């Protein structure tokens, strides 16, 4: 591991800030550091907070961060702001946001300029979220710009999306339902001490009654007073589910199934590593997984990685694979938001599982599905966000 990556893993806030700046500027060295840290990502809970301008999103995020710190959790806040025409940076910088957290090492705050991006997020937001995750933050809270119904990109990044509404919006609830209303896992009616809060809630309930499936929670808050924040946090955690169990929110449930890695069986790690290094990949992590009797080398490639597998014992499954088929693609691994639920569904459908969920590389829970059930490919399902 490089010195830069090691400092970030050790909690060096300055190293983290420098890496964040480099990633925003698409600096190759910073991007290499992000790739090097990729195996350590997958533990943080990512919360998106979106809504119209004036809804009090920043104050709500500030209050959420305080509540999480009281619970002993570490937090990274990514606040996406409009771009300054003078500097090219964020108009609202973190120096004027959330000053009460300035001396708290458990909260890292980063303001990001949109730099021309639409959809409420900056282009580098996803990369910064992964960086904060890999740095060991328990929660990553992303506050979007606040531009109305186009602000839906957050749904593809956050595990739970909180849509913030306020009384006095009039017909705006109906007007934006085709956009951000449909990505909500939780609704927060902020400034609920003002007249009109009952009307907003009635309109939400009326709209939700027309939809099928699980309904997003509706929570009233007064962020300036801290009122309703604990209830909001509970709703977020219930929508998201505990790591390794529980359920995802209705909008998040179908989004977080992604390629984790390709497992490639090799006769020798060193020779295989030499090849992949020649094409630009670098080993970020190596370990021996005793349960599978295999030596593993992980090489990040974008948002996923290649895992090279060398048998550590002649009676391992990888050794038998090599003996029968020779080197090559051994398995495909997907990250799933709820491994236990996935296993239950597979069993109910008659799929053949090769093991009970157990810990593998990186300490994450996994299960293998027999090729006979997957169309001929050995499939590994890995619990996302296992802590």
Compile the SSE list and pairings.
Elements: H1 3-9, H2 13-24, H3 28-37, E1 45-51, H4 57-70, E2 75-81, E3 107-113, H5 125-134, E4 139-143, E5 160-165, H6 172-175, E6 186-189, H7 197-208, E7 217-220, H8 229-240, E8 258-265, H9 269-278, E9 285-289, E10 294-301, E11 304-311, H10 317-325, E12 328-336, H11 339-349, E13 358-359, E14 365-369, H12 371-374, E15 379-383
Parallel strand pairs: 1-4, 1-5, 2-3, 2-4, 5-6, 6-7, 8-11, 12-15
Antiparallel strand pairs: 8-12, 9-10, 10-11, 13-14, 14-15
Helix pairs in contact: 1-2, 2-3, 2-5, 4-8
| SSE ordering | HHHEHEEHEEHEHEHEHEEEHEHEEHE
Q: What is the 3D shape?
A: globular
Q: Could you give a short account of the major beta sheet?
A: 8 strands, mixed
Q: Radius of gyration, rounded? A: 22 Å
Low-confidence stretches: 83-91, 93-97, 115-120
How would you sum up this structure, described in words?
The protein has 387 residues and is an alpha/beta fold. It folds into 2 domains: 41-240, P-loop containing nucleotide triphosphate hydrolases (Rossmann fold, 3-Layer(aba) Sandwich), CATH 3.40.50; 258-383, Roll (2,3-Dihydroxybiphenyl 1,2-Dioxygenase, domain 1), CATH 3.10.180.10. 30% of the residues lie in helices and 23% in strands. An 8-stranded mixed sheet has the order 9-10-11-8-12-15-14-13. A 7-stranded parallel sheet has the order 3-2-4-1-5-6-7, sandwiched between helices. The longest helix has 14 residues, at 57-70. Residues 83-91, 93-97 and 115-120 have low confidence and may be disordered.
């Amino acid at each position: 591991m490089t010195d830069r990556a090691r400092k970030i893993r050790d909690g060096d806030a300055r190293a983290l800030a420098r890496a964040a700046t480099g990633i925003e500027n698409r600096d190759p060295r910073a991007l290499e550091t992000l790739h090097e840290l990729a195996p350590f990502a997958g533990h943080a809970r990512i919360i998106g907070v979106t809504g119209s301008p004036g809804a009090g999103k920043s104050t709500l995020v500030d209050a959420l961060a305080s509540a999480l710190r009281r619970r002993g959790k570490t937090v990274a806040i990514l606040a996406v702001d409009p771009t300054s025409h003078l500097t090219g940076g964020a108009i609202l910088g973190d120096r004027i946001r959330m000053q009460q957290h300035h001396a708290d090492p458990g909260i890292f705050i980063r303001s990001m300029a949109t730099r021309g991006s639409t959809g409420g997020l900056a282009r580098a937001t996803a990369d910064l979220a992964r960086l904060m995750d890999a740095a060991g933050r328990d929660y990553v809270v992303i506050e979007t710009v606040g531009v109305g119904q186009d602000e839906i990109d957050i749904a593809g990044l956050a595990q739970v999306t909180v849509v913030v509404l306020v009384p006095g919006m009039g017909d705006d609830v109906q007007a934006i339902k085709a956009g951000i209303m449909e990505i909500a896992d939780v609704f927060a009616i902020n400034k609920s001490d003002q007249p009109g809060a009952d009307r907003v809630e009635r309109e939400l309930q009326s709209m939700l009654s027309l939809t099928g499936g699980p309904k997003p929670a509706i929570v009233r808050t007064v962020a300036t007073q801290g009122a309703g924040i604990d209830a909001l946090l509970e709703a977020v955690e219930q929508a998201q589910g505990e790591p390794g169990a529980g359920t995802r929110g209705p909008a998040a449930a179908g989004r977080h199934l992604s390629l984790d890695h390709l497992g490639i069986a090799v006769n020798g790690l060193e020779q295989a590593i030499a090849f992949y290094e020649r094409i630009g990949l670098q080993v970020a992590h190596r370990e021996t997984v005793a349960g599978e009797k295999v030596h593993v080398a992980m090489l990040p490639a974008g948002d996923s990685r290649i895992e090279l597998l060398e048998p550590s014992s002649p009676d391992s499954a990888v050794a038998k694979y090599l003996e029968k088929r020779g080197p090559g693609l051994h398995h495909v691994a997907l990250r799933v938001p709820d491994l236990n639920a996935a296993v239950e569904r597979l069993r109910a459908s008659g799929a053949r599982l090769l093991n009970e969920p157990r810990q593998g590389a990186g300490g994450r829970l996994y299960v293998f599905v027999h090729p006979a059930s997957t169309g001929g490919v050995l499939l590994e399902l890995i619990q996302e966000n296992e802590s």
